[in-house]
């Protein structure tokens, strides 16, 4: 039997979509600054990229506060149990019409594979991108901070992480189509309510 | 600064004090530590920073991030020789001394009226509205003086080699007019030659007797310098810092004129990472290939999903 449960709170949804917009916008402007595409013109691309970067930093501060105060950080506790089961489902089970082996609850929204990937996103990928971005922005102060004054390394890391995030984004968007219908996961992130198989 | 604006005359900036003219910066380094360059701090040197300070951009902090490595002039003098006034950019002395069949001097002008050939001087090249060439420059130059041995193997030979590079914290990217020449030198003594040019017929002056060896012999003897008796020509370059003809800020050099993959103003200035121009090709290739492979894999997955679900539906029906 199917039931509707409230999975995503209002702040969580706001945070998700605002972050999604900022990250995509940072990618577009960032790749323009990198020289891969032309859209806003270098001048605007650069300024908008910095503005979006600072905005994401502020949003992240709120998100960290939210995770800590609501206990939502527990969703990202990594587990390697049943990881194989989840992998098998995406590779084979889904084709056979099996139902998803993981049952979402408001207390545990993420399956083990999601928990691991989002944890990696949040504690490795985004911080690396943030730190290299800030270093890039404060390039002029490196001397007074006692850092070597070459931009190559920082730019290289920032670009590499941009590609990793782009790959993450593509896979993430594809996986949103694997719900009950092609858009059911996306709708859940908009309304907050998701229809799930009742756990019997 | 023009009549319609601040109405400055030359001496508003180039103030003279006991016969010293402010602003002669050729022999002095760039404003120290890129701070204000007021007369009290920096002698009689005059710089943009004298009035504007080291971080003059009020609306855009990113522009101020440039001032440690890019001189004001690099962006604010987008082109030189503007307003229909040509500037001489090349002078080939080696082609001087040609005459018409009946022995008359040849004088050629281009359609703008610039002298492009004269029997006395050789070929000359002119240009207007020119994009400067950019080099690292800390305000110092090493001059090749009369009588100095030519030691550098750089060609064209630099008459005033610029000092500074990316690693030099006092050096900034600075715009230059490069005057290119082909001028007489002594291939044995390895020095530039000072020919005797102007005089009466029969004195050996080049502009009347047209004999390089004779003219150089007299000129070098006057200068008290050795001369082997051989005259050859060598390609030379001379750097002229561009600092006047500041354009209104709307017409200053745009970001993408340097921050671009190719054909940028700084295309030939290597040795540092310039965002928008430089990248690690391997990383870019790897990134785009991985993106392509990922999309391909996802398409395959989507295809399998589609096929298997339609099979299941068919199976359900039959």
List the main descriptive attributes of the protein structure presented here.
heterodimer; A: 200 residues; mainly alpha; Fumarate Reductase Cytochrome B subunit; 7 helices; 2 strands; 64% helix; 5% strand; elongated; B: 318 residues; alpha+beta; 3 domains; 9-stranded mixed sheet; two-stranded antiparallel ribbon; 8 helices; 13 strands; 20% strand
Task: Provide a short characterization of the protein structure.
The complex is a heterodimer of chains A (200) and B (318). By secondary structure, chain A is mostly helical. Chain A has seven helices and two strands, in the order βαααααααβ.
What's the name of the CATH homologous superfamily of chain A? Transmembrane di-heme cytochromes, Chain C
Largest sheet of chain A: 2 strands, antiparallel
How many strand units of chain B? 13
Distance between the termini of chain B: 88 Å
Number of helices of chain A: 7
CATH class of chain A: Mainly Alpha
Summed up, the domain count of chain A is: 1
Shape of chain A: elongated
Global Rg of chain A: 19 Å
Shape by Cα distribution of chain B: elongated
As a percent range, the share of strand residues of chain B is: 15-25%
Gyration radius of chain B, rounded: 29 Å
How many domains of chain B? The number is 3
Count the E strands of chain A: 2
Biggest interchain interface, per-side counts? A-B, 34 and 35 residues
> In terms of quaternary structure, what is this?
heterodimer
Order of helices and strands of chain A: EHHHHHHHE
């Amino acid at each position: 039997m199917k039931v509707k449960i409230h999975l995503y709170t209002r702040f969580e949804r706001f945070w998700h979509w605002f972050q999604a917009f900022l990250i995509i916008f940072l990618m577009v402007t960032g790749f323009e600054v990198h020289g891969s595409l032309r859209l806003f013109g270098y001048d605007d691309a650069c300024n908008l990229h910095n503005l979006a970067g600072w905005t994401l930093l502020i949003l992240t501060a709120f998100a960290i506060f939210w995770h800590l105060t609501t206990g939502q950080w527990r969703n990202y506790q990594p587990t390697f149990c049943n990881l194989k089961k989840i992998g098998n489902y995406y590779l084979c089970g889904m084709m056979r019409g099996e139902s998803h082996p993981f049952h979402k609850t408001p207390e545990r929204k993420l399956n083990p594979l999601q928990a691991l990937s989002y944890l990696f996103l949040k504690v490795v990928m985004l911080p690396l991108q943030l730190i290299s971005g800030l270093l890039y922005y404060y390039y002029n102060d490196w001397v007074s901070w006692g850092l070597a004054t070459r931009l190559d390394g920082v730019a290289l890391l920032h670009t590499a992480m941009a590609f990793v995030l782009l790959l993450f984004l593509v896979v993430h968007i594809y996986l949103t189509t694997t719900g009950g219908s092609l858009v059911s996961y996306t709708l859940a992130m908009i309304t907050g309510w998701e229809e799930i198989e009742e756990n019997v | 600064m023009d009549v319609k604006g601040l109405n400055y005359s030359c001496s508003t900036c180039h103030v003279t004090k006991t016969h010293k003219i402010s602003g002669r910066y050729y022999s002095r380094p760039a404003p120290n530590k890129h701070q204000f360059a007021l007369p009290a701090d920096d002698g009689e040197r005059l710089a943009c920073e004298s009035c504007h300070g080291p971080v003059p951009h009020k609306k855009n902090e990113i522009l101020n991030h440039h001032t440690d490595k890019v001189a004001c002039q690099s962006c604010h003098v987008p082109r030189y020789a503007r307003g229909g006034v040509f500037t001489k950019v090349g002078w080939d002395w080696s082609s001087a001394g040609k005459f018409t069949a009946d022995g008359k001097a040849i004088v050629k002008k281009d359609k703008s009226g610039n002298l492009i050939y004269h029997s006395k001087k050789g070929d000359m090249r002119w240009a207007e509205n020119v994009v400067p060439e950019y080099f690292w420059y800390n305000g110092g130059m090493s001059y090749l003086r009369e009588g100095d041995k030519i030691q550098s193997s750089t060609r064209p030979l630099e008459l005033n080699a610029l000092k500074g590079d990316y690693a030099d914290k006092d050096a900034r990217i600075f715009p230059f007019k490069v005057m290119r020449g082909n001028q007489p030198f002594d291939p044995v003594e390895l020095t530039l030659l000072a020919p005797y040019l102007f005089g009466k017929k029969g004195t050996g002056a080049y502009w009347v007797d047209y004999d390089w060896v004779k003219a150089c012999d007299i000129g070098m003897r006057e200068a008290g310098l050795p001369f082997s008796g051989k005259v050859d020509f060598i390609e030379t370059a001379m750097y002229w810092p561009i600092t006047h003809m500041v354009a209104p800020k709307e017409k200053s050099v745009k970001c993408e004129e340097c921050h671009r993959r190719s054909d940028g103003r700084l295309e030939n200035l290597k040795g540092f990472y310039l965002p928008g121009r430089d990248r690690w090709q391997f990383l870019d290739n790897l990134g785009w290939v991985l993106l392509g492979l990922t999309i391909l894999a996802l398409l395959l997955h989507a295809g399998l999903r589609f096929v298997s679900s339609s099979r299941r539906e068919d199976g359900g029906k039959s």
